[in-house]
């Protein structure tokens, strides 16, 4: 077991965890792993002394929370699909003339591909048009199948985990708009507040206007821990996770809470039951936005496995960022490019690398500034030994050995410098490192 694993095991003991967090926050100790400049794998190291300064308060906080509620519940405020039939087929258009590979590391057959398209049943688009809710965590697929679409797995950076039909993962309790059934009835095309795609029909329930209105008018609980089992009279329903948002029925203010959980009856209709959540597992309303609180949530995601499109209940870069800031009532789109442009941002593309880093250190606000490279997004934490550091969920870095391209797999949420491949044998610098490729710096809030 490495140092990081040993410390994380110890940190699960409540009293020891509290002491260690305080010591790490003040820089007295740090747990380090081998990476560029031996960066501490603790966000508390970057918090500084102003632990509880509110980074969002007053009218801006009210506006942010109102925007969150509007976007979160937006699927229940529409009567027709916003996605057109042709827009829903983007993955088919991309792959119909290609050669997607399956889980058996062989190409899918043309006949199977044609049957998949026919199952989309496009002549009946939008006929369903009902409000719905996710009753469990479920995958949001670009076509109605759970089978993956890989590019040729022999290519560097392809194959697992890059299933290009995996749009995202919907969390239990999320509002949905169900527009369309597949021909076999096994799949439903749904819209969330941030993405759209096919979900397993068994994982959702249709919700009537009365229950939807009660849900929209309730206080909300924002989960601050992963893997929180939600049970209805002892029956397990689904896991609450960071990014899960449920109606708060009673309790809170530091004590246990009762939250509403959706259940599906035998006809596919939704009802609300209750589950108990222990103190610390969720926040009574949005969590106050302080660097300390962001570090706490971030620390619970740190080290978790990378999951493309949040597959397997894991997270990719934008999924991690979105879940972290959901806790604080900050609504973000799903992909990295949209996230980088959802708030005030500056363009760093074309500037010299040294100047980019200078501007980041001078202008970026630790814990609330996003840094984007094409296809990837990170949260700026501050500096370590004068070098800017970021939190991000990353698959790996490019390598080049004897002319063959490869990948050095990191495969988790980590803290690194903007040059995470420096200590990797055969690191391929031909396309530059993260610092070279940063194009945008995005400010979620302005302030201290």
CATH architecture level-2 label of the largest domain: Alpha-Beta Complex
Mean pLDDT across all residues, rounded?
Answer: 90
* Number of distinct helices: 12
Distance between the termini: 39 Å
**CATH fold-level name of the largest domain:** endopeptidase fold (from Nostoc punctiforme)
- The percentage of residues in β strands lies in 25-35%
Overall number of domains:
3
The number of distinct β-strands equals 20
**Biggest beta sheet summary:** 6 strands, antiparallel
Low-confidence stretches: 1-37
Structure in words:
This protein is of the alpha+beta class. The protein folds into three domains: 204 residues, endopeptidase fold (from Nostoc punctiforme), CATH 3.90.1720; 139 residues, Roll (SH3 type barrels); 67 residues. The protein contains twelve helices and 20 strands. It has a six-stranded antiparallel β-sheet. It has a five-stranded antiparallel β-sheet with strand order 6-5-4-1-7, with no helix packed on it. A hairpin with a 4-residue loop joins strand 5 and strand 6. The chain is globular, with a radius of gyration of 22 Å. The N terminus is likely disordered.
């Amino acid at each position: 077991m490495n140092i990081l694993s040993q410390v994380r095991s110890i940190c699960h003991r409540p009293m020891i965890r509290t002491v260690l967090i305080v010591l790490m926050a003040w820089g007295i100790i740090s747990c380090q792993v081998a990476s560029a400049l031996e960066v501490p794998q603790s966000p508390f190291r970057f918090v500084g002394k102003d632990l509880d300064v509110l980074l969002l308060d007053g009218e801006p906080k009210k506006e942010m929370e109102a925007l969150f509620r509007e976007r979160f519940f937006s699927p229940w405020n529409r009567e027709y699909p916003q996605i057109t039939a042709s827009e829903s087929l983007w993955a088919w258009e991309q792959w119909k003339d290609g050669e997607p590979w399956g889980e058996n590391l062989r190409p899918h057959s043309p006949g199977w591909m044609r049957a998949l398209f026919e199952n989309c049943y496009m002549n009946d688009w939008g006929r369903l048009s009902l409000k719905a809710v996710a009753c469990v965590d479920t995958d949001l697929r670009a076509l109605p199948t759970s089978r993956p679409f890989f590019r040729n797995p022999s290519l560097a950076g392809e194959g697992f985990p890059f299933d290009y039909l995996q749009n995202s993962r919907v969390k239990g309790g999320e509002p949905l708009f169900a527009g369309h059934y597949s021909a076999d009835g096994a799949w439903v095309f749904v819209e969330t507040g941030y993405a759209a795609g096919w979900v397993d029909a068994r994982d959702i329930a249709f919700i009537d206007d009365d229950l939807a209105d009660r849900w929209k008018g309730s206080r909300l609980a924002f989960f601050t821990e992963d893997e929180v089992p939600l049970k209805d009279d002892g029956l397990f329903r689904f896991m609450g996770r960071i990014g899960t948002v449920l109606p708060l029925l009673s309790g809170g203010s530091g004590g246990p809470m009762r939250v509403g959980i959706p259940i599906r009856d035998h006809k596919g209709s939704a009802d609300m039951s209750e589950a108990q959540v222990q103190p610390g597992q969720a926040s009574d309303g949005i969590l106050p936005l302080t660097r300390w609180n962001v570090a706490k949530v971030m620390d619970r995601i740190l080290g978790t496995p990378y999951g493309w499109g949040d597959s397997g209940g894991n997270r990719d870069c934008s999924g991690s960022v979105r879940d972290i800031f959901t806790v604080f009532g900050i609504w973000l789109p799903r992909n990295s490019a949209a996230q980088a442009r959802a708030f005030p941002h500056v363009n760093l593309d074309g500037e010299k690398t040294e100047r980019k880093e200078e501007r980041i250190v001078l202008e970026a606000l630790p814990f609330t500034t996003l840094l984007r490279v094409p296809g990837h997004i990170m949260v700026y934490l501050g500096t370590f030994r004068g070098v800017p550091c970021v939190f991000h969920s990353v698959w790996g870095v490019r390598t080049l050995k004897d002319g063959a391209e490869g990948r050095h797999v990191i495969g988790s949420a980590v803290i690194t410098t903007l040059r995470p491949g420096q200590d990797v044998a055969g690191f391929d610098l031909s396309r530059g490192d993260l610092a070279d490729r940063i194009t945008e710096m995005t400010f979620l809030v302005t302030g201290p």
